[in-house]
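Try it yourself: sequence plus pyridoxal-5'-phosphate, in.
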Amino acid sequence: MSDRSHFRGFSTRAIHHGYDPLAHHGALNPPVHLTSTFVFDSVATGAARFAGTEEGYIYGRVGNPTVTVLEKRLADLEGGEAGLATSSGMGAITAVLWTLLGAGDEVVADRTLYGCTFGLLEHHMPKFGVTTRFADLTEIETLRAAIGPKTRLVITETPSNPNMRVVDIAAVAEVCRAAGVMLVVDNTYCTPYLQRPLELGADIVVHSATKYLGGHGDLLAGAVIASKELVDRFRFVGVKELNGACISAFDAFLVLRGLKTLALRMDRHCATASRLAAELEAHPAVARVHYPGLDSHPQKALAARQMRAMGGMIALELKGGLEAGRVFMDAVELATRAVSLGDAETLVQHPASMTHSTYAPEERAKHGFTDGLVRLSVGLEDHDDIRDDLFRALDRAGAG
Ligand SMILES: *Cc1c(COP(=O)(O)O)cnc(C)c1O
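Structure, out:
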């Protein structure tokens, strides 16, 4: 099989799936096709491509050969039929929502979402007649009650950003199927290496590939994985005509490069984060650590069932609240004050003033996270260096 689609191991597929070097002059890596448009050898060919009766590229906003390799690879890793790569995670989310929803439709969303997804649903979609009910999707009865006759889709993240609540994808999917609504899961925090929502019954997976999939903090990208029928609609309606959020060939190449080490990186992120989570929990300045691998996490058993390992994200609440969080964040030296996540560098940020400032203070309380919460994206540096840095900063925060 020339495109190496018969290999089964995750890392093997992340490195090889969907690309045959011998079909590209032996180039080990997929060539970066820096072209906006594609040449037709005749009018008939052009017409056939537009009519969809002949395979082939037309224009960069709907497809590019470098991007196609990435789309096939991500679909394969998520266990989906087809994939669509986009210019950012928000490009993926808006391509899905704007394609599927129209005036009068309702969305049910988990109460804790990435800040811009929340902003889109709460503040901007109502302008187009689409309203959202936020519900705690960790409680299945609450979900069932929130779904009404106008509900078209349910959207969730798990573990949720920033406070690491875990949603039972299989249980939510069952309720959605019975109600005839689609389930969209944002799998950015886990990547398909740790969790595969489609296998648990979700209809659509979205990603910010800016994070772990790219993995090096040097690009913005997103992806959607679903049935071919849905992905065709997201491509030819969502990206082609609604948001224009196509990925560049060069960024697609960089995500492909990141994918080669995804499993290795995730193993290291997870191993370091689970050690740190336990150590941080024991520090006297820390009130609470949110990490699904800890015994103190209320959904530890569910997380262990649903995820291969517990991920690289940790949320902390300090005993001194918001002020202690500020002191802590200004005191770190190795950890880097920055939003985003999933990079080689350990990143620390404050959701209430940064990623989740789209939530009003009372919304944050209602949606389940405090102003004192600090979010850590555990990087690939040596565990001891990260621990020493965090502990030094915590000592400072505790003393204040
Ligand atoms: C970053 C992020 C997004 C948005 O992705 P961009 O690539 O920044 O547009 C969506 N969901 C989650 C969970 C994220 O962390």
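One thing you can check immediately is this: The chain has a mean pLDDT of 95.
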